[in-house]
Task: structure prediction
Amino acid sequence: MTPGVPDAPAARALRAVRAVRAVILDTDGVITDTARVHAAAWKAAFDAFLRAHPPEDPAQRRPFAEEDYLRYVDGRSRLDGAASFLASRGLRLPPAAVEEVAAVKERAFTEALGGNGVDAYPGTVRLLHALRDAGVPLAAASASRHAREVLAHARVLGLFDVVVDGTEAARLGLPGKPDPALFLEAARRLGVPAGRCAVVEDALAGVAAGRRGGFGLVIGVDRTAGPGTGDALRHAGADLVVHDPGELLTGDEGAENTGAEGERTEGEGAHP
Result:
């Protein structure tokens, strides 16, 4: 590759990002380093439930694992995620039982959130500032009821023109991902057609929602760099996959995340 001249995938990424009029980002795992906290809270809730109510098939009694989080829970609402995972273990439960598992997870996550700081990924923060400086409207859209609180803790809430979180989704009766309703509501509030918006997501369900919603660009974020994760995101509908959204500043599709440090940004509040 000629120095200073991006290769074909990088140039394609740059053109695609520059063509959109607004950007909608998921929160956990894309903006903030909270996906691991959610995963740990789910593991505590599910493992306790499986011990108390072991499935009939011994092979289904194994502990909750990372691949379970990515496949059944990540990007979904609490109730949808709980029901999806429990069904995968052959447990068809009444709504009250599913709600109790989700409530245990909620308590574990809230306790962890209160005891630990919340960080925004430096690469994502750099991208957000660049987009703000360019006058690009920004939205955060998450199935989590804690999204606004998490963004405030990470001191990036003020970078967003719109926030649509799990509380708003419940109030409006919006179905969870992979249905695109959450992203479509964010686009509506931004006043930009879905076809002119980019969606940035790390969850398979969220990527599928972006594709189903007819968004102009769907960007998958693969922070795990695990085998097959990028391919799974592309299969779900991602137009391109990056290890960190900050790579979009240079169009470096698929580049390794160097973990560069950066300061978090103070914010006063979003304007839904």
